[in-house]
TrEMBL record, chain A:
CDD domains: TM_PBP1_transp_TpRbsC_like (cd06580). This is Nucleoside ABC transporter membrane protein. The keyword Secreted does not apply. Its main location: membrane. Keywords: Cell membrane, Membrane, Transmembrane, Transmembrane helix. It is found in: Cell membrane. One of its GO terms (molecular function) is transmembrane transporter activity.
TrEMBL record, chain B:
It comes from the Bacteria. SMART domains: AAA. Gene3D superfamilies: P-loop containing nucleotide triphosphate hydrolases. It is a peripheral membrane protein. It comes from Paenibacillus prosopidis. GO terms for molecular function: ATP binding; ATP hydrolysis activity. Keywords: ATP-binding, Cell membrane, Membrane, Nucleotide-binding, Repeat, Translocase, Transport. The lineage of its organism: Bacteria, Bacillati, Bacillota, Bacilli, Bacillales. Its main location: membrane. It is found in: Cell membrane. This is Nucleoside ABC transporter ATP-binding protein.
């Protein structure tokens, strides 16, 4: 047991949680404006692939992350255009984008790098590891918290920033209003679709960062479909956290921990395919236990008041 | 003159919603706009509020010609509107709902304390106190209405349009609202009140403009007119006074004995309720909404599970039976909330009419279109339902016309027992007359009717016996010919009957 739950398990939890957390925060802000973004998986995949492409062509890690953001952003604009402007069903658009992302990255992998399945290059430099002064000298805690990529720390910062933005600023307040009752918001002269586009774009940026952490932070390579459902887990984290940044962070942490644990268990002679099921089993269990009753009640109330 | 609307005409294709309408408003005046459903009241106000642009005509504000492209323009010109369906955010606090769009801020931060202070100040200034930190979703409809008005005042409105403001309120809340409106008018605010409740209009308005089929049929001073004259202007003919013939109640049709529903709160939703409805009898249930009437109806019609007691329909125990079985046994149901229980918004008028009638219009499981359309067309004609065509989607019908469709559909079931919950909510006097007439006709044909209404006048007019509900219990039974409005009001508020 002690071998299983050691320092490196918690350190790797933080690493594994970052892509899920970033995507879940993106999902949360979309959910807050009334767009249920099923396309997180695709957006992260695009981010992961374009980070590698950026890295390959520029050799600059900063430029690589930036390129990942831009590509995810473009992809999210597509989502926004179809669901907000053309008023297509968001679920259908999201699913379509997931398949588009999977096909596009697999095809481009072949076209750009001329490889199948995975691209790995020894010369490629991943995200730097930051040692946090003072904290790194604290025993145990230092080993867990210090020595991660900048994106890990950025994601923590974004949780607090987003919490502040949504619940303490005027713009955040109007964003919540646009999501809660778009008709009423419009009657007050609030530009609902402009706010929705804003949320979708922020989601694109977050998913780009999530992808970069996945392909340049956790490992330094790209494999086909390497998100392997993390976008959907992020979606569950969004719902479980009731689209509250702090809540989303907590539920992402749970899933990240299971992710790390499943990898760790592989070293304990557990069948790989069995341990890989773990995060998903927890997802299903979580859906059963934390049935989102508050949400249903809110919906019922809003129905009554609009009678 | 504060506001002048001159020769406003608005056509949608071949349909003319407003035709050459003149409307004026003085400062500090309450000007009521009355008319039947679809007479063009709401269209006229949507034009004033910038939600529609008129086909022709002009709007003058303090003598200057203005044109509004959006509600934002109207708000900037100090015109505010309280919509029939509240435009509120249930999970936000009262203060947040009031200041939204014009939030007090510190840099980019939303200063919620200042918002609460502002809400409190507005409430005090205009005599409509509110608790700024309470969530809207937890407030009564009366408080929600108050918040809507405070919101409009916070936007700086001088002209306030109220679209059917009393439709969902309890009698006490209505009184409070009317008092508040009068007080505001004395402080110099001007009101346009859309309504078809003539009593209220007569009580509060200074002037009244009547619309019929998109045209003004008269603008009169409230002091020079009466409800009879107004309804003549609205309907275009004299109203037939409905007479109630005496009937002798027969065998019991519905017997409810000791029904209880616990619910998840500390107080039970229904507490040992027993009642009986006989052949040829209308039993009215009065009460402030939310005192168990909805649950009682759902318990009778099989939509809600009972924790105790029994329901008998025509001698058969139907406690816990499926809805279909109960309906087959002889129940038709005009539901209280037409949007939630009554219609499918995206389905057509014909399809909505077919609900519950499908069995009669099929051959080998295939529906017979022509006989269905014939049936629905007959209702449209008889009840004067204003609809584009039979293929129009239900959501495009006005609330009153939708209500007429539901009433027609459920009456056509021709069952021995009928539940009529708020049968005339949101319908105009002409339609109300038709619906009341049909209900009384059913009674004379020995039908049994359980009537639930928040309108005391309706209860008094139709019922043979009146039951009053309070906090899930039946707290009083009165014979209709002996009951007074005061007696019932007292029981509704939880007091004891006098005399």
């Amino acid at each position: 047991m002690e071998q299983l739950f050691d320092v490196s398990l918690f350190a790797s939890t933080l690493r594994m949680v970052t892509p899920i957390l970033l995507a879940a925060l993106g999902g949360a802000i979309c959910a807050r404006v009334g767009l249920f973004n099923v396309g997180l998986e695709g957006l992260v995949l695009i981010g992961a692939f374009s980070a590698i492409v950026g890295n390959h062509f520029t050799g600059n890690i900063f430029a690589a992350v930036l390129f990942a953001i831009v590509c995810s952003l473009l992809f999210s604009i597509l989502f926004g255009y179809m669901s907000i402007h053309l008023k297509a069903n968001v679920i259908v658009v999201g699913i379509a984008l997931n398949f588009l992302a999977l096909g596009l990255t697999t095809f481009s992998l072949r076209a750009i790098f001329d490889v199948k399945g995975a691209y790995d290059n020894k010369d490629m430099v991943g995200l730097p590891k930051w040692d946090i002064p003072v904290i790194k000298d604290i025993p145990w805690l230092g080993d867990v918290l210090s020595g991660h990529s900048p994106l890990v720390y950025l994601s923590m910062l974004l949780v607090i920033l987003l919490q502040w933005f949504l619940f303490k600023t005027v713009t955040g307040f109007r964003l919540l209003a646009a999501g809660e009752n778009p008709t009423a918001a419009k009657s007050l002269g609030i530009h609902v679709s402009r706010i929705q586009y804003g949320a979708v774009l922020i989601c694109g940026v977050f998913c780009g960062l999530a992808g970069a952490q996945l392909s340049l932070g956790n490992v330094t390579m790209f494999t086909e479909g390497m998100t392997s459902g993390r976008g959907f887990i992020a979606l569950v984290a969004t719902m479980l956290g009731q689209s509250n940044p702090i809540g989303v962070a907590a539920s992402s942490l749970l899933f990240g921990f299971m992710d790390a644990l499943s990898i760790r268990l592989q070293g304990f002679a557990m069948p790989t395919h069995f341990t890989m099921m773990l995060p998903y089993i927890v997802t299903i269990a979580a859906m059963l236990f934390f049935k989102d009753k508050g949400y249903i009640q809110e919906a019922r109330k809003s129905n009554e008041s609009s009678r | 003159m504060l506001l002048q609307m001159n020769s406003i005409t608005k056509s949608y294709g071949s349909v003319t919603a407003n035709s050459g309408v003149h409307f004026t408003l003085r400062k500090g005046e309450i000007h009521a706009l009355v008319g039947e459903n679809g007479a063009g009241k709401t269209t006229l106000m949507r034009i004033l509020y910038g939600m529609e642009s008129p086909t022709s005509g002009e709007i003058k504000l303090e003598g200057k010609t203005v044109s509004f492209a959006s509600p934002t323009d109207a708000i900037q010109n100090k015109i505010g509107m309280v919509h029939q369906h509240f435009m509120l955010f249930p999970s936000f606090t009262i203060a947040e709902n009031i200041v939204i769009g014009r939030e007090p801020s510190k840099a980019i931060g939303f200063n919620r304390k200042a918002a609460a202070a502002e809400a409190e100040r507005l409430g005090k200034q205009y005599g409509m106190p509110v608790d700024p930190w309470q969530k809207i979703g937890e407030c009564s409809l009366g408080v929600q209405q108050r918040v809507e008005i405070l919101k409009v005042l916070h936007q700086g409105a001088e002209i306030i349009i109220l679209d059917e403001p009393t439709g969902v309120l309890t009698p006490l809340e209505v009184k409070e609202l009317l008092v508040a409106i009068k007080a505001l008018a004395r402080q110099g605010k001007s009101f346009i009140l859309i309504s078809h409740k003539l009593q209220e209009v007569m009580e509060v308005a200074d002037r009244i403009t009547v619309l019929r089929d998109g045209k003004v049929t008269g603008t009169v001073d409230a002091a020079d007119t009466d409800a009879e004259h107004l309804s003549r202007l609205m309907v275009g003919r004299d109203l037939i006074h409905i007479t109630r013939n005496d009937t002798v109640p027969g065998e019991p049709v519905l017997e409810v004995s000791n029904v209880s529903i616990r619910g998840d709160k500390t107080k039970p939703l229904l507490d040992d309720v027993s009642l009986r409805v006989n052949e040829g009898e209308i039993v009215g249930i009065a009460g402030i909404s939310g005192n168990g009437q909805s649950e009682l109806l759902q318990a009778i019609s099989g939509l809600m599970k009972l924790d105790g007691g029994a329901v008998k329909l025509r001698g058969t125990d139907v406690t816990g039976a499926p809805v279909q079985t109960i309906r087959d046994r002889g129940l038709a149901h005009i539901p209280e909330d037409r949007y939630q229980w009554g219609v499918a918004k995206d389905a057509t008028v014909t399809e909505n009419g077919l609900m519950g009638h499908a069995g009669k219009h099929q051959k080998y499981g295939i529906l017979r279109g022509s006989s269905i359309r014939g049936m629905v067309a007959e209702w449209v004609h008889r009840f004067g339902i204003k609809t584009g065509s039979l293929a129009t989607k239900a959501q495009y019908l006005s609330g009153g016309n939708l209500q007429k469709l539901i009433v027609a559909r459920e009456l056509a079931q021709n069952t021995p027992f009928l539940i009529a919950a708020e049968p005339t909510r949101g319908v105009d006097v002409g339609a109300m007359e038709i619906i009341h007439g049909e209900l009384l006709k059913k009674r004379e044909e020995r039908g049994a009717i359980l009537l639930v209404s928040s309108e005391l006048t309706e209860i008094l007019k139709l019922s043979d016996r009146i039951l009053v509900m309070f906090e899930g219990r039946i707290v009083g039974e009165l014979a209709a010919n002996a009951a007074t409005e005061e007696q019932i009001s007292l029981l509704m508020a939880g007091g004891k009957a006098v005399g």
